[in-house]
């Protein structure tokens, strides 16, 4: 499987001058995946009591100070975070100015600044846009317009109900024909004595009346207590005089 990076192509544009690099491709699972349980347990115990001695790690890159790690920060007691927050508020850390490599793009006024304006500023802006709108340049379209979207052989006709404007006419229903074959039995019908219907009280209405009655009783009790307190205070005031 030949492999060439962009850097190699920039350094040596001719691919025939250098032999292709063969990278072995192994898609098989690791051998430790199929080992038995006792062998995995023995290996874990050996790594715990007699770990393998490895040579010191040699780093070719420079370390980056990222501050306190997240695990160490979570292990800190709660008062340390409180003191750190107070210190950041009183004397914040002075950071170097931010260096931007990209060029800023003018996006106009931010939406947060627009929402912080007073209502009359928006009203005056709307009036100015209505009276003297901003003149903008013509829109440059790169796409070509499509001609004859509707073929000329088609005829578009509106519905007759949309063209004719007349009042709506409702025809009467056709009379039903009486069935002559059915005999008519005219017999006097006995009129039943009408009984006065007693309106049944709803359970919610009964509960409502009970609650109103109890609330009135409580109101009278509280008014009586308040009146007694006022009379007692007036009597004590006149007694001291």
3D structure, described in words:
The chain is mostly helical and 241 residues long. The relative contact order is 0.02. The chain has a domain at 6-47. The protein is built from 8 helices and no strands.
- Envelope shape: extended
Taking the sheet with the most strands, its summary is: none
Count of extended strands: 0
pLDDT averaged residue by residue: 77
Secondary structural class:
mainly alpha
**N- to C-terminal separation?**
114 Å
Beta-strand share of residues: under 5%
Report the C-alpha radius of gyration, rounded. Answer: 47 Å
What is the helix/strand order?
Answer: HHHHHHHH
The proportion of residues forming helix, as a percent range, comes to 40-55%
Total of helices: 8
Sequence stretches where pLDDT stays below 50 over 5 or more residues: 1-11
Topology summary:
Blueprint: H1 6-11, H2 37-49, H3 70-74, H4 78-90, H5 111-115, H6 119-131, H7 160-163, H8 203-240
Structure characteristics:
8 helices; 241 residues; 40% helix; mainly alpha; disordered N terminus; extended
Summarize the structure.
The protein has 241 residues and is an all-alpha fold. The protein has helices at residues 6-11, 37-49, 70-74, 78-90, 111-115, 119-131, 160-163, 203-240.
């Amino acid at each position: 499987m030949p492999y060439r990076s962009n850097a190699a192509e920039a350094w040596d544009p001719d691919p025939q001058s250098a032999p292709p690099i063969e990278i072995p491709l192994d898609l098989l699972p690791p051998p430790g995946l199929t080992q038995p349980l006792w062998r995995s347990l023995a290996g874990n115990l050996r790594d715990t009591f007699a770990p393998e001695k490895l040579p010191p790690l040699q780093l070719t890159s420079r370390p980056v100070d990222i501050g306190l790690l997240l695990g160490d920060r979570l292990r800190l007691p709660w008062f340390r975070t409180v003191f750190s927050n107070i210190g950041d508020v009183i004397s914040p850390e002075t950071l170097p100015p931010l260096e931007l490599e990209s060029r800023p793009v003018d996006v106009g006024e931010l939406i947060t600044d627009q929402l912080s304006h007073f209502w009359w500023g928006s009203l005056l802006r709307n009036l100015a846009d209505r009276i003297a709108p901003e003149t903008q340049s013509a829109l440059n379209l790169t796409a070509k317009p499509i001609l004859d979207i509707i073929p000329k052989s088609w005829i578009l006709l509106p519905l007759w109900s949309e063209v004719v404007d007349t009042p709506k006419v409702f025809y009467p229903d056709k009379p039903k024909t009486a069935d002559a074959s059915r005999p008519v039995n005219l017999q006097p019908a006995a009129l039943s004595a009408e009984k006065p219907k007693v309106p049944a009280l709803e359970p919610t209405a009964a509960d409502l009346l009970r609650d109103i009655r109890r609330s009135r009783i409580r109101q009278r009790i509280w008014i009586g207590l308040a009146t007694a307190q006022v009379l007692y205070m007036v009597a004590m005031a006149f007694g001291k005089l």
